[in-house]
Design brief:
Blueprint: H1 5-14, H2 22-34, H3 36-52, E1 54-55, E2 62-63, H4 69-72, E3 77-84, H5 87-96, E4 101-105, H6 123-132, E5 137-140, H7 146-159, E6 165-168, H8 184-192, E7 195-196
Parallel strand pairs: 3-4, 3-5, 5-6
Antiparallel strand pairs: 1-2, 6-7
Amino acid sequence: MKPPKIFLHLTQALQILPGIGEKSANRIAFYLLSNSKEGRKIAVSLEKVLADIKFCSVCGNITIEDPCLICSSLERDRSTICVVQKPMDVFAIERAGIYNGLYHVLGGLLSPLEDTGPEDINITSLIKRVKGGNTEEVIIATNPTTEGEATAIHLEGELRPLGVKVTRIARGIPVGTDLDFADDITLLRALEGRREFKG
């Protein structure tokens, strides 16, 4: 006997999430059915997030207000921009409490295998910010993966002619891992040990 179509639609929708395969999707779907109160809470929260959360028009981070609280804060160091891949990376660095500048979220990385080029991520808006502001340093904090390194090298080539100092976070972050999995001390060492970009 096959499950109802509506159940299959739920499991297929869950498989869109990263790291969720067919078996995990089935387990989650059965859990939500067995615990309908919690399932409804999740549905309401998801509906609210999708309705209220947007991307900051300046940095690309997730926010309720536009521009976001970081971009609009007068207490942040406006001479430094830390470039990250995704909003979770902003939260990881903020959680560590080690950086007081601005951010720029690329929303992805350069990846020829996935056909992701410079026009597919927020590089143009970063260049405009650097040209139009008082930026003295851009810290490239992409993950130390092949795609992260390729993106960093491309950014360095775009930013260097603008006369801005370009640095890369140090190798305190293990190769192949994401920033949001790093502990606070590792992030502290990585940011403190950043170096001028040499390509």
